[in-house]
Amino acid sequence: MSINLPPVDEARLAAEWEADKDVLANLAANGDVARIARPVDVSFRGSEKDFDRLLTIASQFGMVELDREEDEEGDLFLFLECVQPVDEASIRALTRKCLQIEILCGVEYDGWGCEAQAGAVH
Predict the structure, then answer these.
(1) Residue 52: CATH number of its domain
(2) Which of 15, 23, 43, 117 has its CA 20 to 30 A from that of 81?
């Protein structure tokens, strides 16, 4: 099954990139080697119904479900994981993909995170 991904609002993408740069700078300050592939978590806020569709789409991009949580306000969050480097190009591509999933599924993309990886690239 092939998904036609919608265009992303470039202003929204630019705003997300500003937040992404802060995360990357923090990782770099902790000795991260961005080109090392590692587990990267992404999260979305939405409903159980929307999460089912989201999982179908996200699985085509190598994302797997990690967890579902409800916060204090009763909002539901779905946490996914993919394995990839966190260099600028890779994170820009991930953020664009997540914003496209947001549009397709009626959920809210809530960002990404990972652990710093130091050492040699294999």
Answers:
(1) 3.30.70.970
(2) 15
CA-to-CA distance for 106 and 69, rounded, in angstroms?
18
Domain count, the chain: 1
Pairing of strands 108-113, 38-46: antiparallel
Distances (CA, A) of 112 to 12, 20, 30, 121: 15, 8, 17, 22
Structural domain contains residue 105? yes
Residue 28 has pLDDT above 90, yes or no: yes
Residue at 6 is within a domain: no
What's the Rg (C-alpha) of the chain? 15
Kindly report the pTM of this predicted structure: 0.90
Print the domain residue range for 86.
38-113
- Alpha-helical (H) ranges within 30-65 are 48-59
